[in-house]
Amino acid sequence: MAGYKLANYQSPQGPRAGAVINDMLYDVAALTGRANYVSTQDVLNDWDAAHAALDAASKAPKGQGQPLAQVKLRAPVPMPGSIYCAGANYQDHAEEMWKAAGKPPEPDPHDLGLKPWFFIKSSHAVTDPGATVSISKYSKKMDWEIELVVVIGKKTRDISLDNALSCIAGYTVGNDLSARDLGFRPPVPDTSPFRADWTRHKSFDGSAPLGPWITPAAYIKDPKNLAMKLWVNDALKQNSNSGRMIFNVAEQIAHLSSGITLYPGDIIMTGTPAGVGAGKGEFLKAGDVVKMEIAEIGTISNTMS
Fold it and tell me: For 14, how many CA atoms within 13 A lie in the half-sphere containing its CB?
């Protein structure tokens, strides 16, 4: 494995930043000799220098490492400053949702002069790879959504489309768990502008599993060509590619930064492709295991309860 992955691991002293190198995990502060790199947020706050130090150290790591299989990994960004989530950003997913709602497909938003649109999850929505997510008492129609997740590594405002990718520290894997039965406020009528409830729908505890680590952007050949797969109990449900996004990563960052300052540790969940449960009337239940994999990044699993 070339280079390293930036992980958040559970040490006896609490969560700490780790570097995964050839199936071994090294404490970042010890590996780089920089005692201030305690958390992944510390590393992201000093991203350019930290990445250079970690990349150099990964070529001939010194110090004591631990076998990765013996380490408990936590969410790589356990408390993001902000979580921005792109809505309806894969054409095939948009079409399956329109079909489920009994509505005809709409044109490509680019053709209509539209920009990306987002909703926000609470930072408390983040949960760890391998964690159990409590859903059965909350929702009867819990859905899965694999997403390529961008991790910001540089304070950014009004960045151009051409330079938008330069503010990215790296990428991780995320699940935008969605309570489909809680997205609207009964008995508020369909015609009311106050019917939607995005908070209960998308931002409950555990609704953003992230992991297993951050793969630095410098190691990703093309973020527009990453295979994405999601399984429920070993049955393949989503099988797509990041290249099928309507608004690509650069477009999303450029648009967000036109009105909002992005900070290190902020994350952008960039949308999900077709294959979600709502399109087929299938939903998660207690005991289900959701496994997600994005090429060049990694794999995570979570169990529902």
Answer: 4
Last residue of a domain, one of 34, 57, 74: 74
| Structural domain count, the chain | 2
Residue 120, domain extent = 83-304
Query: Running DSSP on this structure, what letter comes out for residue 98?
Result: H
* Helix-strand-coil split of the chain, %, nearest 5: 25, 30, 45
Residues 276-294: tens digit of each pLDDT: 999 999 999 999 999 999 9
Residue 93 — φ and ψ, nearest 5°?
-70, -45
Query: pLDDT tens, 175-222?
Result: 999 999 999 999 999 899 999 999 999 999 999 999 999 999 999 999
* pTM for the predicted model, two decimal places: 0.96
Residues 69 and 88 both lie in one domain: no
Instruction: State the average pLDDT over residues 214-235.
Output: 97
Domain final position from 74, 106, 134: 74
Please provide the DSSP assignment of 37-60 as one string. --SHHHHHHTHHHHHHHHHHHHTS
Identify any residues that bridge with 168 across adjacent strands, giving them in sequence order: 152
252, 87 in Cβ contact below 8 A?
no
Residue type, 22: N
Separation CA 99–CA 271 (nearest Å): 18
